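User: Show me an example of a complex going from sequences to structure tokens.

Assistant: Sure. Here are the input components:
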Amino acid sequence: MSDIRARVHEILAEQAMVDVADISDDQVPADLGIDSMGVVEAIFALEEAFDIEIPFNANEPQASDLDLSRVGSIVAAVERLVASQHS
Amino acid sequence: MRRVVITGAGTINALGANVPATMDSMREGRCAIGPLDLPDLDRLSIRIGAQVRDYDPASKFGRQQLALYDRYTQFAMIAAAEAMAQSDPALSDAEAERAGVVLGTSGGGLKTQDENYRAVFEAKKNRVHPFTVPKLMNSAAASHLSMKWGLRGPSFTVSTACASSNHAIAQAVQIIRAGLADVMLTGGSDAMLCFGGVKAWEGLRVMSSDTCRPFCATRSGMVQGEGAGIFVLETLDRARARGADILAEVAGSAMTSDAADIVVPAQDGAERAMAGALRNAGAGLGEIGYINAHGTATTANDRTESAAIRKVFGSHADDLPVSSTKSMHGHCIGATGSIELLACIMALRDGLIAPTVNWRERDPDCPIDLVTNITRERRVTSCLSNAFAFGGQNAVLALRAV
């Protein structure tokens, strides 16, 4: 597992209050018990952990080209933002 | 029961420096949202707001006052001066003991806190101004209002986030109804457009970075404003006896709690607040000719509020104009209900319903009779003003033409 994937899994596990071993890329945040405010909190944690800016407005979650629908897509989004913002 | 009426109104907000200018702007559907003028703007991702512009505190207040008046206190004093001049309650010494203040504010002296934290943490100063505490306290403005006009009855601050004004006004009405006072100065004031204030809101990810479009399918969130709205309330009997110009009656109010979530609104709490205000005012569904909505332009508020209006008013909602003036003056947080009350007074007095500006596209999840972009003419004899705060603290006022 990539370092970024492992760290994203850790952050989402902490937010969902579940064991990191129970997190997998095909899971949907809501199914982990992460509600809309939980998503906002997790985004903050990801920004802090990776020193990135994640464009996200809770009123129009679809407006940014950010796919937060599954754990795997969040990992991909973070990888892309780390690559573009730390280049 | 003692009936309570409004005999004076005052404001300062981004739409205008007084009530006539604000009502002109509301009638014209002017949006006062624009680029923020703040220090360190480049460190903010939200850079728009409805700021009070061309404002020079030194032209309004003396040196000693400025040492004690945070921006929110300044706004409250300016608005109260206008309201008191209009009402001219002519309080005798004995009457002044039965007159007080209930002010709503959320941030209180936030700008003073922001500046002083900056001084000690960023500039590493080891000394702050001796009046930092009396300037920043949330009760400072209420105290200064009582001092300035010699109001020696009950006075205090009410703080329920975005519903502070409505809770304050409802409380002032209850104080008069209960016979604890005969005249009350009430409303709200907030000045949270400082770096720390905007930064905190930014964190919640509910702020728009373009503009405020309540109840619109393309809404992108809330935009913060600032200002104050202050009213003189007194008993109907007193107002009539002295021949005062009565702006409107505060016919009823209701306060409810969602008891559910610290940020997400619940439909049930909003419904009970509206229905409760109608009952308290003795008003039938068909009598209400306008609702000034809370209408923050967040998805959570707008859908919940629309559904609540539908539920309470049923088929009456088909022909019940609703607007959110936050689209023009921004969300003035603890002052917002008091500024929105001016739109209610305009509807009752002038038959003009202020529009929801910036609106583009109908949202099927907001099935209400929304007044969009252009002022609507309609005779209104009673109306509601909604305020639904974070934490599920709701307060709705029912106003009636006298």
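The lines above are the inputs; the final block is the predicted structure for all two components together. The mean pLDDT of chain A is 92.
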